[in-house]
Amino acid sequence: MLDVRLIREQPDAVRRGLATKGGADLIPELLELDADRRRLVRESENLKALRNKASEAIGQAKRRGEDAGAEQARMREVGERIKTLDIELKSVDERLEALALQLPNLPHPSVPEGKSEDDNVEVRRWSEPRTFGFPPKPHEEVGAALGLDVERAARIAKARFAVLWGGMARLERALAQLMLDLHTREHGYTEVWVPHLVNGETMLKTGQLPKFEEHLFKTVEADEGRPLYLIPTAEVALTALHAGEVLPEVSLPRRYTAFTPCYRREAGTYGKDMKGIYRQHQFDKVELVKLATPAQAYAELESMVANAEAVLQRLQIPYRVVERCIGDLGFSAAKGYDIEVWLPGQGRYREISSCSNYDAFGGRRAEIRFRPDGGGRPEYCATLNGSGLAVGRTVMAVIENYQEADGSVTIPQALRPYMDGLMRLTPR
RNA sequence: GGAGAGGUGGCCGAGUCGGCCGAAGGCAGCCGCCUGCUAAGCGGUUACAGGGUUAAAAGCUCUGUCCCGGGUUCGAAUCCCGGCCUCUCCGCCA
Question: What's the pTM value of the predicted model, to 2 decimals?
């Protein structure tokens, strides 16, 4: 969420910032509502001050045994007027917040121009794709022989689910473990275990609601309690952990990691990436989340990307890093990078991680603040998040990059300790 | 699932028949004083949000906040209703 005060004081700068991302057209109405709100607040509060004084006088009069009926009647009317104003104020506040929630974050000045992911800018590449002595197969073909089973998954659930048998299931688990160990032992993250179902308020505070409801799986409690939502990423749970809190500045940055399944409806992607497990309703991810001061946030973004890259380096799989352009930044991000892994079966780089700095936009929405070291008023934290990595897509990358002519897959060195020294997955 | 108790400031804890309660007292913190050191002692101070004033900040001032949302009342921490959460006992359970 953007600071309404910033919009009020520098509407033109905000309008320029939102030019590509959209939402600038909402500003006039927002400014009008803001002016209405302040007018109503002033009037209501003046009347409340009057009433408070009068009520005190009535109390004193009554204690002296005097009659205060006339004054009480007068205040009854004032009370009615206040009630009317407050109802109006509440309605203005609600409309104002609904509008403010629709405004995306302002891009950082360093973010490249561009409309779609095609305009993203490659920042660096790591390692060279290996040369195969045979035509490399896509992961769904390599995987089918090794225990990747989408047919039965579709039967017991629906399309876009998978069953992993034997070594493939083991590979999934081993990768998650490798990632968690790397981030907790070498990158300073604290491992957190979180609920996979969260309430609507948490979804609102982390920017999933109201805008992205169609992407979420929603549950209904049997006793008609508030609905809970399946998390689309551990980011929502991790970021919301400190919602409403004021953290000491010395405790920043905080670095959290969690291994969870992610559940996404994938509405509007029918027919897209239907083969294999690139796009699933359920997938595992090791997520990275940081809370930082706005001053630390951009350096923390760089190190977060490096932390995610380290996973692919361990696995010896080629990738490139692209900086997302304004049009591909997403709603909440001020700046962000994607890591794209090389998939020889597809002959191209595909997204395996997305790291973003939401800066104070995220902290304001979730109400996460910090108390500056020298004292003073609390300020909003910057929130950052990134995949480190999406486990299912890493499985894809491993089996495509390490496939052999006979249909087997070599287990990367770094992964063997997590698979009892197993060197190879062979067709079943 | 059944029965009961409760949610007050950074923490503990008091709030009488609704007014003088943004809230006693204690602890912790900060500033100063005092004292060979330490401990003790003395004085002051310590929430958040929003509005107004200001170029802005500080300051001043007003409003709201005693879990959340409604209601009663001239006036609610205090009374009433709903929700959320916590605890105790019984039952069930990985």
Answer: 0.92
